[in-house]
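Lab meeting notes turned into a lecture example. A postdoc, R.K., suggested we walk through two folding results consecutively so the class can see how the record format repeats. The first protein's sequence and structure tokens come next.
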Amino acid sequence: MKKISKKYIGFTLLGVALSVSSCKKADFAEANLNPETIYTVTPENQFLAASRQVNNDFEYYYDVYRKMNYWLQYSAPAAGNSLNFNLPGGNFNYRYGNLYGNVGPKLIDAIKIIEKMPETEQAAYTQIKSIAQILLCYYAFYTSDTNGSIAYSEAFQARYDGTLTPKYDTQADLFARLDEQVKTAVATLAASGAAQKSLGANDPFFSGDATKWAKAGNALRLRIASRFMKVDANKLKSIATDVLSNSAQMASVDDSWEFKAGPTYADAGSNWNPANFIATKNVVDFMKAKADPRMKVYYMPNASGNYVGGFASPDAPSKPENAALYAAGLTGFAQIQLRLFTPNAVADGAAGTGSAFFPMITYSEYCFLRADFAARGYTTDNAADWYQKGVYASIDYYDRRAKTRENGTGVGIPNYVGVTQPQKDAYYNAAGVKYDASKAVEQIAIQAYFDFYRNPFEAWSWWKRTGYPSTSSTIFAWEKLIAQGVELVLPRRPSQSYLPTSNLNYENQKAALEEMMTSGYYGTGPGDPFGRVWWDKN
């Protein structure tokens, strides 16, 4: 059952009603109307406070476990999907409220606190300011990615003599602005001359390591560049070329950008609980056929020690020919690996003590982006090399996370045996996995899909950008989703709605929604989840 945590009670006091779609759109105004005092906190405090909110338990309860994981066929309910499971519903899109109610204001506070310091003191905070800017750009991009136009350039400023009615930036303008801001932040990290304060333990990503933050910033720029593919390929090429000319590049799994926390951060007794979700048939069948070493990391075997998946299609469980498959109920299926999501989950009679982790941009994603850009002719990289690096990096990444606190990052999957080099080689050389230039774009997208198991947000975006996986793939095909004989389609964005006319920012939001509707592919109206935002052009 969904649990209400204290932090969400606090949001309600600020007027942030996250469960109501129309209220989500008002969060930036409400946050500015109820500023918290920042006079007794430090930039380090505010950075940590924002970082802890980047991953959101309500978002996992609704958006991940009960929507995106179902849509992307990473998992399913034990009894099968409901007839209209493809609809987002009202409890979706927590990223929007989280940007304006938590992450954005705290990061702006960190930046503004630094800017109000004496110049001599500011010099020591140059890197912290740049790191805060990179994280703010990450989350603003993440929010706009599915919502389209959002308030950004004028947002979060009311307590600093700014406006209570910030304009909305179009997605085209925002993505270009974010890319420039990240580029500047990366350059500043490299150029900081004075002795620098370190975030240290207040940075749950890189412990204040400016070099790793610069690499993460460049990886973020590549992700931003990918969104220009269908609307401005020249812009994609320009950003990618500029990024790859910079020396700060991810070079190993150790450079992966992820949030790290202790065993109780994603508590198994709370909204983070991933219990009772089963694997899907097509996914585990593919992983078994290719001897994918990640299968034992992603899923737990059923009561008989086998990896058995259920159907994603709503009509399939009720078919007579599938009755035997569903006869044993939950225990007959492989379930998603509890400790991979909640490291303190009980297994073998004991609660886990491992570390929680949340991938932001991993080295494997970085490799797949470089492979994808090269395969499409946007860069001069060797697509085959970067694809192979991505496959091996993904296996290494999850292998490390599965272990018992290796380098402080393991979740401690019970009885886990590490992956060997021959196992990795065998997987890479399997038919359909080993690089084939004639199917490069499809292969890269499918391997990225398997890599994004713990980052379904990006898997959803890659599917929208590339079209893979698909039900007609010759390498790995999704199951067709049939409900009462009708094939379902997947949503491409959250449903949106107009603010009340009494809202301070009604006119700006109305203008933004109407502008998005002029694209011709935004859908029948703001509430149409099958419409597309700017970057997701037909």
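The second example is placed directly after the first for contrast:
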Amino acid sequence: MKKTTLLLGMGAMMLSFGQARAQETIPEGMEAITNASEIQLTTQDNLNRSKNEKPLVVLPNGSMIFSATTEATGEELFICKDDQVSIIKDIVEGSTGSDPKWMTVVGDKVFFATTTAEYGMELWITDGTEEGTMLVKDIYEGDLGSDLFGLTAFNGKCLFFAKDSDSELDAYIDTENGDKWLWISDGTEEGTARIANVTTREGIDGMSGYLVSTSKMVFFIGYDRQWNETLWITDGTSEGTKALKDIYPAPNTDGSEFETQAATIDWLTPIENEFNDKLVVFRANTLDNSGKNIGSEIWYSNGTAEGTQWVGVDYAAGEENGVPKNTEFAFPIQYGGKVYFRAKDGIHGCEPGVTDFTAEGTHYICDINYWSNDPIYDSWGPEYPYIWKGYMFCQANGSYYFPEDTYNDSGYCLWRYNMEEGGVTPTAENGLIGFQYQSNWTNGVEIFSGNNSDEARYFTPYNGRLYFRAQDVSNNHELWVLDGVDATPAKVADFSGDALPHSFTVTNDAFYFITTTTAVLYKYTTEPTTLRTPNAAANTLSIYPNPATDVININIAADLAYVEIFDLSGKCVLTQEGNRKTLNVSNLSTGIYMLRARTTDGDAFSAKLTK
């Protein structure tokens, strides 16, 4: 059933994008909200906040905002409200389009960058209506544009980097194009101001974006004229914006004005404040305690100079051709007071590791890809990790035995890890398993059998199940699901061609996604896995205080199995396992969230949380 409504003020139009591909196997409860012959979504297939210029975002009322193209309007900003899609505003009238980017929810509005002939690329804001969509400020006056990026919500305002005439004239990093300095905006022209003459390094790898927000401060990679590239923080004011310390104080030798060399920070990732008050982890160039360069290693910071520390172990020890080995630390994820990641330890290749921020507690877990030590094969796992019901699900390139005496390779595929193992390295004595390939819990069933890559990623929970994208033959990426941690993966839908679904979003009690090949928005609704009537003694759940500041109490009579908190984009931002009825939310940014809880009896509850 067609659900697209284009409110363009010019009557019905015939658009020439071609017909959507025929659908082969679409389950009951799934329907197309848009039609490829009328509108094509331009939302990007990328979870990385620093690389995805065109995300789909969700307002507090459940409406989704995204960029899309029609023949009449070009690429503009659209809204899906009550499953009806319409253009918000034809900012550049006619078929040219304004190329909206970096959509970011702040409160009940969306900040974004868009380009017009009059102003160039500048900061705009929308509340989802035409009259509520407007230019915030012409930061670089005239038609050149400020080329802003890195938009990030923090305490009801929007932080970002932008170029103006001052930063262009006083550039010391990008002297050819001009530096982009740190700005903040409350959505008004007078409330939009530059707060620091500091730029960042564009093109980072970390998934959390250029500005990593915590409850009290924002971390970012910045440049100090003395210390070169190092770790910075801001509280949204000029006085509260500063470099924390010289992370890599090796003497500079390139003849530039910097006294020391660049720290080359990456994978800057927030962790929960309850974990020893350490707020971010990252990798950076490192000198050991004797002043020797040991390459890129693992660091953490709580926002103070004293609390910004190397974990104390040379994880990737040794040299190669006279150059220190690097950890290639990436994809960190927190659980139970520890951070799990992938990294090279100099022995096993790039494999799973764990840290509790001590030297003793930072180590390799297991060798997923143990085919050979010469040469060393990397698993590059875990990639895209997601923790669900006490297990980490992820993508990895590995080796496994199934049956027990039969050795196989998996390709880049779905693996899991039981978080109860706590990062301990498996041995014959302790009986631990480590990371486990799908065939070992499905009695030999594989998504893409043989040494092939199913490329599992984008794990998203909905109604008691875990959805993800995977392929079972080459170039056939579709929507898949796990009904439980021990379930055999099942394909949900099989579109004609390679669907490449992305932008998984849970809102309004439904699951939405976009197909890359047809650029269509789909809606999928299912019944929860638990359909029985909840126990009468446990049929209510409440949380307080609400609005919350640091810790919330969960008032429910039944024992809890786990609690999850989702932001308005449908992303799970916090998980807590076990029957703990207090939850530290101090690391969450200001906004509206959905708390979902599952009891040990299997009953599901939800409550709205305001921070």
